[in-house]
């Protein structure tokens, strides 16, 4: 920006000349070089500042070379001075010379001589000087000559500014530069029409009048898009839901816009958008009815299965609901769940189903039912039309009776109780018998009767007992009734004498029964009496099933309210192989982790699908954590990918401190990875072999307890492991055991302990229950068998089960009744629990929750672990398998060495030997039918 100038020439002369091109020029000249001490001033008029804080003075001038003029060497100068003075108004000539502030002394870059003057060559010099900061309303300029021959041809005064521009959809207006040469003036921009600030738009104006450092920006508002530094409205059929940089988008499928600048596209008729659907989502509609319904009736339960609707409505969030109606012969159908009817149960639930399968329980026998299966999605409730459904009608079969509802006490004495009850409301057939269960503290007994009354005798005086009754038909047993608590009468002196008399009689009968010694094998499985050379003989019953005395008293109880059973909330494991797309299952259950957050540090092994690595995972705002990574090898088949992702989908459903934890998966980049917590001590079998003999019995029981707790959790979810072994248990730095390896249908190519089955898969023979080997019937009970082998592995510090026997010999020995003997130093209580896990009848094996209870009691009462089974493992291999199992069962391990060395490998050989006399002296045999523990006073 330029200022207009006027000059008060004072001692300078105003002269009009011609330049070398004969162009007229107006100059101010002074050339008093002959006289010394010159002080000639040329001053401008008052110049308004006009908002400028720094001004620039451009001076064009010519200057005579002093050497070209004779006789002036002492008085001639070749410089002049530039001054300025600030004021708020014009003050005329009242300014004194000493009030001016010197800007600079200006010298010529080149000067002219007499020769130049003759040819009119001026040799102009141009100098620019800046002045600032200025604060008054205006200023004066002044030029001082001190003895030079000079002519001013041009004086231009101006200031700089940044010219207004538009950047990032923001407008920046003109702005004057700063006060000094290094200052930056911050300027805030204003968004253009139909735009809004994303970050405050700013730019800086430099001292040279240039825009620098653009910061922030504006974006076009919803319904508008950017076009040549402006925002224009979206056309019809297009929309933009939010402010941003993006362009307008075409309306999603089944939607439209009718005006310009649309921020959303309304759905077409009969199409809807859910509340949580983004504006970019296509409109959808309710699904059609499910198809291909299949019903499987089993007694009073039915399994319903169906296929997805042919029209899903354009959505993937399908859910199913079941409506149940009970239909009589001639009357109308009524709701199954109406008040007063039996509590019909739907597994996993009645509505909100994500799988196309449901199990309906507690139906009435020989009754017609009608089920309506509806498919819904997130927009079903927005439609005014009734949801379509598929109907399936079924008739139930014979079923177990309903619960016995009322039990009353008829009579009670100090040793017996008489109970009576009514037949169940729904007998569902002919009642064959009733089971009456009664227990005191932590053990219970069962009494069977065909009548609706029973006398329970042999009870303790002055003791509270809990009684329950259930009915049984040919279809099975019903549920137990509610608990009834009854206390027996207190004992008297007369009753005590009678008790002593009965004990004496019992001893007499027992002593006379020694003639039955030839039945020792049969009897010893029932009851064993060991004499300690005195009057006391303890008879211990060896129960073929699982002893309920080990259970907590509330393990078998159900909770009742208002006469109805209250079932706990159940959570079920979902088999990922039911999904058509394995990626859908893994994304539904597992968390996707960005590959950039994973750092692989080393390879620690190889698995079925690829390498197993150790690495670290970065967590936002937290420390990196160590992780184990399973990778999917290159060149994998589609089946390998399905099995690999299925294992991740399985692990993602588990959340228990004794089950390996899945951190997440990487599927959006290669290699595909499963990320789990890192277990520092590796597999349990290898860990035990590295630390052979270094742990106490309590520590080993603690390891076993962790495995049992994890399996309890898995079995409660309905998950069957199929390959439970110490090699598939991982141990962390705190000695916490965690169940791992959940790959289903695995092909264990490198496992020498596996054998082919008829279906082509492999089974680890040494850990698998007989029914699973023979019939491929895997269940939680078969996992219990495997757990018993894990117990044996732990107590033997990782020794191989069945040592060097072949798989065929193992199968044959187990079928003949042979069971693994107790490892060296193994407490008898633990080996007894192992034998319970190896019951041939899977229904006689304990449940995992019962195993946890037993181990907890052993941990709380370590004195029960002091009784050791000293049977040598190797010596048992010399015995007939059935004879070896009998030896373990009757706790006669100490006789093995004495029998194996002479060659007594079977019971018949032993009976023929002279050792039978020794056995007669030390072993008393009795047959206990009703009692589990008999304490008998007698003389051996």
UniProtKB/TrEMBL annotation:
Keyword Phosphoprotein listed: yes
Protein name (Swiss-Prot/TrEMBL): receptor protein-tyrosine kinase
Alphabetized UniProt keyword annotations: ATP-binding, Cell membrane, Developmental protein, Disulfide bond, Glycoprotein, Kinase, Membrane, Neurogenesis, Nucleotide-binding, Phosphoprotein, Receptor, Repeat, Signal, Transferase, Transmembrane, Transmembrane helix, Tyrosine-protein kinase
Transmembrane feature ranges: 876-896, 916-938
Residues the record lists as binding ATP: 604-612, 630
Enzyme class: transferase
Positions of the Fibronectin type-III domain: 286-399, 400-491
Matching InterPro entries: Eph_TM (IPR027936), Ephrin_rcpt_lig-bd_dom (IPR001090), Ephrin_rcpt_TKs (IPR050449), FN3_dom (IPR003961), FN3_sf (IPR036116), Galactose-bd-like_sf (IPR008979), Ig-like_fold (IPR013783), Kinase-like_dom_sf (IPR011009)
Compartments reported by the entry: Cell membrane
Active site: 723 (proton acceptor)
Catalytic reactions on record: L-tyrosyl-[protein] + ATP = O-phospho-L-tyrosyl-[protein] + ADP + H(+)
Span of domain Eph LBD: 1-167
Biological process (GO), any one: axon guidance
Membrane topology: Single-pass type I membrane protein
Domain of life: Eukaryota
GO MF annotations, alphabetized: ATP binding; transmembrane-ephrin receptor activity
């Amino acid at each position: 920006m330029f200022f207009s100038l006027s000059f008060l020439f004072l001692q300078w002369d105003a002269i009009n000349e011609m330049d070398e091109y004969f162009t007229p020029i107006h100059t101010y000249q002074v050339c008093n070089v002959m006289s010394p001490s010159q002080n000639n001033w040329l001053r401008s008029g008052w110049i308004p500042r006009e908002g400028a804080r720094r001004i620039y003075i451009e001076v064009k001038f010519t200057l005579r070379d002093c050497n070209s003029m004779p006789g002036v060497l002492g008085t001639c100068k070749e410089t002049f001075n530039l001054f300025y003075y600030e004021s708020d108004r014009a003050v005329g000539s009242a300014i004194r010379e000493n009030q001016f502030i010197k800007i600079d002394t200006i010298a010529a870059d080149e000067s002219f001589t007499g020769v130049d003057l003759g040819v009119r060559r001026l040799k102009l010099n141009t100098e620019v000087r800046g002045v600032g900061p200025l604060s008054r309303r205006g200023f004066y300029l002044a030029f001082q000559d001190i003895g030079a021959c000079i002519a001013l041809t041009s004086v231009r005064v101006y200031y700089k500014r940044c010219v207004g521009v538009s950047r990032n959809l923001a407008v920046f207006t003109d702005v004057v530069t700063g006060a000094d040469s290094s200052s930056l003036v911050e300027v805030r921009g204003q968004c253009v029409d139909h735009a809004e600030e994303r970050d405050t738009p700013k730019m800086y104006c430099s001292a040279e009048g240039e825009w620098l450092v653009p910061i922030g920006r504006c974006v076009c508002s919803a319904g508008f898009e950017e076009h040549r530094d402006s925002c224009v409205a979206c056309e019809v059929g297009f929309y933009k839901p939010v402010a941003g940089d993006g362009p307008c988008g075409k309306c999603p499928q089944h939607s439209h816009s009718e005006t310009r600048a649309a921020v959303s596209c309304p759905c077409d008729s009969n199409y809807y958008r859910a509340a949580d659907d983004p504006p970019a989502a296509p409109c959808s509609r309710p699904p059609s009815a499910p198809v291909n319904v299949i019903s499987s009736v089993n007694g009073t339960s039915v399994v319903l299965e169906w296929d997805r609707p042919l029209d899903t409505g354009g959505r993937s969030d399908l859910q199913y609901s079941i409506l149940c109606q009970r239909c009589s012969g001639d009357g109308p159908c009524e709701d199954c769940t109406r008040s007063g009817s039996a509590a019909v149960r739907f597994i996993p639930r009645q509505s909100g189903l994500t799988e196309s399968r449901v199990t309906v329980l507690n139906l009435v026998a020989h009754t017609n039912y009608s089920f309506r299966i509806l498919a819904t999605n997130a927009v079903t409730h927005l439609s005014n039309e009734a949801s379509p459904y598929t109907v399936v009608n079924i008739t139930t079969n014979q079923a177990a009776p309903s619960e016995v509802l009322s039990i009353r006490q008829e009579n009670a004495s100090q040793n017996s109780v008489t109970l009576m009850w009514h037949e169940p409301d729904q007998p569902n057939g002919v009642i064959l018998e009733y089971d009456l269960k009664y227990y005191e503290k932590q053990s219970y007994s069962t009494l069977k009767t065909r009548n609706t009354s029973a006398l329970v005798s042999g009870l303790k005086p002055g003791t509270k007992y809990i009684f329950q009754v259930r009915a049984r038909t040919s279809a099975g047993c019903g549920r137990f009734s509610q608990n009834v608590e009854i206390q027996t009468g207190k004992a008297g002196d007369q009753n005590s004498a009678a008790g002593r008399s009965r004990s004496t009689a019992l001893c007499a009968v027992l002593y006379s029964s020694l003639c039955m010694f030839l039945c020792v094998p049969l009897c010893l499985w029932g009851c064993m009496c060991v004499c300690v050379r005195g009057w006391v003989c303890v008879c211990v019953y060896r129960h073929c099933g699982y002893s309920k005395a080990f259970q907590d008293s509330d393990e078998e109880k159900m909770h009742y309210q208002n006469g109805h059973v209250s079932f706990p909330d159940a959570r079920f494991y979902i088999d990922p192989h039911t999904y058509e797309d394995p990626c859908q299952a893994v994304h539904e259950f597992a968390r996707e982790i960005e590959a950039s957050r994973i750092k692989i540090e080393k390879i620690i092994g190889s698995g079925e699908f690829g390498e197993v690595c150790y690495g670290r995972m970065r967590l936002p705002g937290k420390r990196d954590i160590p992780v184990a990574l399973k990778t999917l090898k290159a060149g994998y088949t589609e089946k390998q990918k399905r099995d690999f992702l299925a294992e991740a989908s399985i692990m993602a459903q588990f959340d228990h401190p004794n089950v390996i934890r899945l951190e997440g998966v990487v599927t959006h980049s290669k290699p595909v990875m499963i990320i789990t917590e890192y277990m520092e001590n590796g597999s349990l079998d290898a860990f035990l072999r590295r630390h052979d003999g270094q742990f106490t019995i309590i520590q080993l029981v603690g390891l076993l307890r962790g495995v049992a707790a994890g399996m309890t959790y898995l079995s409660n979810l309905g998950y069957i492991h199929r390959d439970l072994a110490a090699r598939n248990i991982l141990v962390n730095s705190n000695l916490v055991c965690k169940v791992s390896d959940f790959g289903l249908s695995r092909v264990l190519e490198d496992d020498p302990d596996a054998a082919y089955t008829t279906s082509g898969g492999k089974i680890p023979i040494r850990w698998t229950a007989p029914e699973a080997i023979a019939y491929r019937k895997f269940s939680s009970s078969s996992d219990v068998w495997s757990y018993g082998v894990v117990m044996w592995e732990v107590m033997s510090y990782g020794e191989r089960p069945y040592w060097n026997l072949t798989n065929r010999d193992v199968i044959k020995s187990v079928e003949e009744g042979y069971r693994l003997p107790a490892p060296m130093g193994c407490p008898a209580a633990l080996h007894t629990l192992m034998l319970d896990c190896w019951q041939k009848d899977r229904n006689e094996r304990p449940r995992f929750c019962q195993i946890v209870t037993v181990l907890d009691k052993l941990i709380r009462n370590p004195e029960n672990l002091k009784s050791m089974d000293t049977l040598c493992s190797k010596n048992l291999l010399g015995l007939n398998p059935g004879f070896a199992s009998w030896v373990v069962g009757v706790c006669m391990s100490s006789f093995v060495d004495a029998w194996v060395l002479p060659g007594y490998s079977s019971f018949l050989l032993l009976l023929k030997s002279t050792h039978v006399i020794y056995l007669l002296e030390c072993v008393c045999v009795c047959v206990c039918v009703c009692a589990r523990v008999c304490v008998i006073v007698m003389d051996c």
